[in-house]
Design a protein that fits this description.
The protein is an alpha+beta fold. The protein has 3 domains: 90 residues, no CATH class; 84 residues, Pdz3 Domain (Roll), CATH 2.30.42.10; 196 residues, 2-enoyl-CoA Hydratase, Chain A, domain 1 (Alpha-Beta Complex). Strands 1, 2, 14, 15, 16, 19 and 20 form a 7-stranded antiparallel sheet that branches. Strands 11-12-13-17-18-21 form a 6-stranded mixed sheet, sandwiched between helices. The protein is globular and about 80 Å long.
Length: 408
Amino acid sequence: MRDSEVEIETSEKQRRSLPLAGVVMIAAICLVAGIALGARGDFMARVGAIFGLRWGDSALNLDSVNSVYSELARDFDGDLDTGALIEGAKKGLVEAAGDPYTTYMTSAEAAEYTKSLNGDVGAGIGVEVGMRDGFATVVKVLKDNPALKAGVKAGDVFAEVNGEDVLGMTTEEVVSRVKGETGTSVAVVFARDGELKSFNITRAQINNPSSVVEYKGEGGKVAVIRLSRFDQKTGAEMQDIAQEIVSKGIDKIVLDVRGNGGGYLASAQNMLSLWLDDKVMMIEKTKDDQMEMKTWSGRAVLAGKETLVLIDGGSASASEIVAGALKDHGMAELVGETTFGKGSVQDMVEVAGGILKVSIARWFTPNDVSITGDGIKPDQEVKMTFDDANAGRDPQLDKALQLLKEAK
């Protein structure tokens, strides 16, 4: 399986903030730690075979690693788990590449990841999580879900999950511990305003479709489309929403990609085709200087409609492709805060026992602008605080509605 995707969860900002040497050092430690978990004489040959390497291949000589393994197998005072050993070595090998977006996932991790990209959010407490100042933080509490009923607030920092310290963990690691079976409970401790708040929350199936539309403004003449991710259902959902907007005679649109960490590139391109038909949506460049202009043919039924895009620091990857393309083609004005700044493309490749997600190219906006590390700046900068979110205020949306009202 090779599913082309442009993807990021905002937790990657924490790892990206580490110096490169630190990332490589951590990866090297992970490799040794992984080796410390299992044993079998043909261990490194099996690892090499998984990644298409020959033992002793001059392109990647694993003799020194095998030496560590041999000493470990001879001297380790305890039982060694071969399966865990090999999984640890595979993860360490990939992490040592030094790219936070190139990762190896076990079969179980890959299954959960693929489910999320297929629109299956699963059972949890009903919050959107992002990295803030290096900590996994609640950035939004979803309506009609357990966390809201329990009293969880935007800005709460995850401190413990089921008694385990999660401070400093990535959002994926925290979310994987919070999710579980419907009807089971999870004990979560949050840090809030210098105090610890404890909750025991019963998990429920989370209702969080990737695309929803509401009609706001005077007489409900503004379509506000909220995109939470770009999964396999997003393209079809957006086609339906676009037809509904056209049938209602709506001429003004707010496209909200705040907190949207990305997903499938094809879904983003499919959605963009509602505004852009046979126009460049992005430019891909590889390390050997190969360049490809990405276009998508469709029915641009929303072209010509007054459009504003809401962005923030959680808008990443596919969201940035959408925002950048609409801005460069003069189809939309951007409102909110600077986006995350992920300008790389990943491919997902099946390897024995798991999936390798590997960066294969860099992407640029249609005007050949790299957003890596810098993000995309809004045309109209408007801040939104956690206090705003908890009080039900949305100054960014308010500004967008104001601008559309003034545009008539």
